[in-house]
């Protein structure tokens, strides 16, 4: 039987098993990558909203295509659920259609 020894370092529970220590490192890397990608998706969505507020249809359509691409990629990576992506794309297209 493997005895788990956990220590509390800086508020984090750190396992004493080599495989779990490696998993903790990879999990943290993925968390940071996902956070960065989510941030870029939010920025792309905000660019669409700003273009719509400025009544700039061409800029809004260009920003919409970038935002849709990022949302689809995030869904493929498993960062967002498909219903979330569909809802965001639908709401953005409604915004663009409101100025058209």
Mind explaining what this structure looks like?
With 100 residues, the protein is mainly alpha-helical. The chain has one domain: Up-down Bundle (Methane Monooxygenase Hydroxylase, Chain G, domain 1), CATH 1.20.58. The chain is 75% helix and 6% strand. It has a two-stranded antiparallel ribbon with strand order 1-2. A hairpin with a 2-residue loop joins strand 1 (7-9) and strand 2. The longest helix has 36 residues, at 18-53. It is elongated and about 60 Å long. The protein starts with 6 loop residues before the first strand and ends with a helix.
Q: How are the SSEs placed, and which strands pair?
A:
Blueprint: E1 7-9, E2 12-14, H1 18-53, H2 57-77, H3 82-99
Antiparallel strand pairs: 1-2
Helix pairs in contact: 1-2, 1-3, 2-3
Keywords:
single chain, Methane Monooxygenase Hydroxylase, Chain G, domain 1, 3 helices, 6% strand, 100 residues, mainly alpha
Give the gist of this structure.
This protein is mainly alpha-helical and 100 residues long.
Overall average residue pLDDT: 90
How many structural domains in the coordinates? 1
Reported by name, the CATH topology is Methane Monooxygenase Hydroxylase, Chain G, domain 1
> Helix count, per DSSP?
3
pLDDT < 50 stretches: none
- Write out the strand line-up for the largest beta sheet, numbering strands in chain order: 1-2
Name of the CATH class? Mainly Alpha
> Helix content range of the residues, please?
over 70%
CATH superfamily, please?
Ribosomal protein S20
Sequence of secondary-structure elements:
EEHHH
* Straight-line distance between termini: 68 Å
Number of strand elements: 2
Structural class category: mainly alpha
Per CATH, the architecture is Up-down Bundle
Rg, alpha carbons: 20 Å
What's the overall geometry?
A: elongated
Give the amount of beta strand, in percent. Answer: 5-15%
């Amino acid at each position: 039987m493997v005895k788990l020894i956990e220590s509390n370092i800086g508020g984090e529970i750190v396992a004493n098993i080599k495989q779990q220590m490696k998993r903790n490192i990879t999990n943290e890397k993925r968390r940071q990558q996902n956070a960065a990608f989510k941030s870029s998706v939010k920025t792309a969505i905000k660019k669409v909203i700003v273009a719509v507020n400025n009544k700039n249809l061409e800029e809004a359509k260009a920003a919409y295509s970038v935002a849709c691409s990022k949302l689809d990629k995030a869904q493929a990576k498993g960062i967002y659920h498909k219903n979330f992506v569909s809802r965001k794309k639908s709401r953005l297209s409604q915004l663009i259609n409101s100025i058209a």
